[in-house]
Amino acid sequence: MGSQSRRNFWLVLLLAVGLAGFIVVSPTATLAVRPAAAQATLDGEAIYLERCAFCHGENGDGDGPVAPYLNPRPRDFTSGQFKFRTTASGELPLREDVIHIVQVGVRSTAMPAWEGVLTEAEIEAVVDYLTQNFVPDWGEFEPVVIPVGNPPRVTAAIIAEGEQIYQELQCWKCHGQAGRADGPSAPTLTDDFDFPIRAADLTKAWRYKGGSELIDIYSRFSTGLNGTPMPSFYDVFPEEEREEKLWALSAYVYSLQAQQPTEQSVITAGRIAGSLPTSPEAPEWNEVEAVSLFLTGQVITGPRWQTPGVDAVTVRALHNDESLALLVEWSDPFQDAAGGGSEGNVGNATYVNLDEFLGTAGPQPDALAVQFPQTVTEGTQKPYFFWGQPGQPVNLWRWQADSSVAEYNVAGFREEWQPQESSQVTAEASWADGQYRLLFTRPLTTTDPNDVQLVPGEFIPIAFQAWEGSNGEAGTRLALSSWYSLVLEKPAPVSVYLYTVLTVGLVAAGEWLLVRRARRK
Ligand code: HEC
Ligand code: HEC
Known about the structure:
With 521 residues, the protein is of the alpha+beta class. The protein has 12 helices and 13 strands. Strand 7 (394-400) and strand 8 form a beta hairpin. It starts with a helix and ends with a helix. One heme C is lined by residues 20, 51-52, 55-56, 66, 70, 72, 74-75, 82-84, 98, 101-102, 106, 109-112, 114, 126, 130, 209.
């Protein structure tokens, strides 16, 4: 990329982020300056040009100035392809379908929800404008509506039947055996516009674009998502058993949805006697309480990253007074073990081609880092959550999918990273069914002043960062969390034992006295 086009790129990106931020952050501010009289004659075209054109293009062809930097791209309305419909596969949507998706937006994409930003009448006006002016054959044919009956009560038997159908219809080819979008066909999927597209991760309820309820799921695979490799499965069953089969399949897909990450901010490392689990697959981990947290794209320094591959991690921890064992799990459909498309790189090198915009050479290895303050201080003072700041460094344990682990000290996101010469952090990782499990182990205390010291009972700030190689992530292009707290369970203090012994003793003595008195009588 030449320096001129690079400068243009930054300008457009800045503009895009600014505009998107403006829409998201200040709906009321923009509404307030609008005169109430404008309600009388609603101009769909004006609303479209003001609100939609910089993504969808002035001519509705999905080619607004921001479009090249979005993944997925804004819809080209002139293609007549709509994903979220109540109508049969290949048909145009109903007017109500378009109104609905403009109201609620498309989750986990750049398409905002307009409810509350535009009035109901404004949404109708802009939808009429875009459908009548850009969508070929709009209003010429009556679309066939796919009926959705009433969902059944979900039982284990229905889910089991649905699982069988998931196998028979080979949903796993794209969505993977556990639903994490890691099926054998997943790396090479493209949409009708030849852009790479990912299968939906069916375990993440919060990412379902068309809603995650039973009835939404039913609609998605009975109508299909036009313009994508996701077909309609409405006609595969004879009419008499269709409803039952499709509801069973919906129930199974619904059952794949993992728990929503919590707002819980404390991760407790339980204290055990004896040795800690040495493998991320050790069955002992199933007994340990799990905390799931959200990660977001890094938008503090350029290139700002709105579409991170990893949006959540699940954490479990144990200690035995000597060492800490920290298990981190996250979904990643493609295992990228080494950068630059070299041997051992299982993910598809051209999966999301970001070179054009961001100048990286192919996928980088997947990676995950756990961050602590270098020094834990009392009170609420913590280093800046994004790699610390001058004078307040962080201590990072970073694992990479080529099986290397290194420890760093960083004091600000502009600093070069230098690995520590020797480190007592070890890491053990596995990948299966689109999921990494990574186990870090470190002694609670070390003699290196650059290392965080892990003292039981203290609130130790902890944060997580992830890089998904096949999503073009490396360096400052990553997903990150804010600070959480890690607390290592303390042995009960001696005074507690003392009180317990005393109480038990007193009760026993009292009983003995009572018994004696009763006997005497
Ligand atoms: C910041 C960029 C952005 C803006 C602004 C935006 N959209 Fe979108 N829109 C998108 C993207 C991206 C998609 C595609 C999502 C996908 O394919 O999963 C989309 C999809 C759509 C769809 C297709 C839904 C379907 O069923 O397939 C409609 C309709 C739509 N937008 C209408 C609008 C309208 C109306 C406005 C203005 C009021 C608007 N959009 C503003 C980014 C934007
Ligand atoms: C050829 C690949 C392929 C097959 C086979 C396939 N899907 Fe999909 N599916 C996709 C893609 C790609 C998407 C995402 C489209 C998008 O994001 O616009 C998707 C989306 C979905 C969604 C919508 C999720 C959301 O975001 O709202 C559901 C539900 C779904 N698939 C279920 C199924 C089920 C059930 C089956 C089997 C009966 C199946 N799929 C078979 C590729 C496939």
